[in-house]
Amino acid sequence: MRDNEGRVIDYLRISITDRCNLRCIYCMPEEGVKNICHEKILSYDEIARICSVLAGHGLKKIKITGGEPLVRKDAIVLIRKLKKVPGITSVTLTTNGVLLEQYYDELIDAGIDSITVSLDTMKRNVYQQITRRDELERVLRGIEKAIRENRVRLKINCVCVADIDTQNVLALLNYAQRADVDIRFIEMMPIGLGRQFSFVSEAVIRKMIEEKYGKLTPYGKTRGNGPCKYYDVPGFIGKVGFISAVSHKFCDTCNRVRLTSDGFLKSCLQYDHGVYLKSLLEQKVSDEILWETMKTAIKQKPKAHHFDEKKTKNEDEIRGMSQIGG
After folding, report:
1. Residue 199 near residue 246 (C-beta atoms within 8 A)
2. What's the CATH fold of domain 11-324?
3. Which of 45, 75, 200, 317 is the most exposed place for a label (fewest CB within 10 A)?
4. Can you say which residues are annotated as belonging to the binding site for GTP?
5. In which band, very low, low, confident or very high, does the pLDDT at 260 lie, cut at 50, 70 and 90?
6. Can you count the helices (H) and strands (E) in the chain?
């Protein structure tokens, strides 16, 4: 699969639910968002069919996201289905970690290839401030179980929230220091409620790390499906990575599209470009028609985002990350 810019598209991020058991301040309002009714959510068979058709044209890697994917009933069943799709080489999961301890063994048995936990702080009071929930201990137990079992690669994503105890993010590095865990710092993207927060740049975080631990050395190898740039840190077992969409635009190498829980195939995070597939699936169109529809949307993938521009365009995405897929 190639878009009109010649980029090879082989990675699909699938939001299987817009529901979440947290209310992070940059993702959802305190009262939550209006949930999509179950009838409008893609079934697991529909998701598997979309992936099967795309895999026939070059899709290789799938990321399961939400909302919080583990709050959807039988999410493990979907992972098993996708692992059996010919051509798919990797099925990974991003979770907030609240239910990780409970489902870890089932995820491993289903064949998950890696697990990413989103965690922005190690302080209970800061965690409550960011997530509006008191679930940090459950998240930490899940992470410790994953480290102890060491049956699949574990990554931790941190979105550094400006003006909320920025220095504390360094506490997360203890995981990479003592275990083969990757800590990735993600710049706040101006999507949904994220527009209300200033982003903390890669340069700021790198300076903090190097002042405490020494110079970061580029790792130079791929450690996943996405655009993260990894570094070695003196004395660390794991790596430190940066996903810096605002300060270091990587659109020229973008290899992904997104599928929302209600069936919108979305070609770029910033824009609302794409096509709804749910109605086509309900009409039981042929795989050929389904592919041609998806191919058109993929080809028209925008050349680049413009997160660095303050003005909002009419075609900008208005949905939040919980509705798009984190």
Report:
1. yes
2. TIM Barrel (3.20.20)
3. 45
4. 13, 94, 155, 256-258
5. very high
6. 10, 12
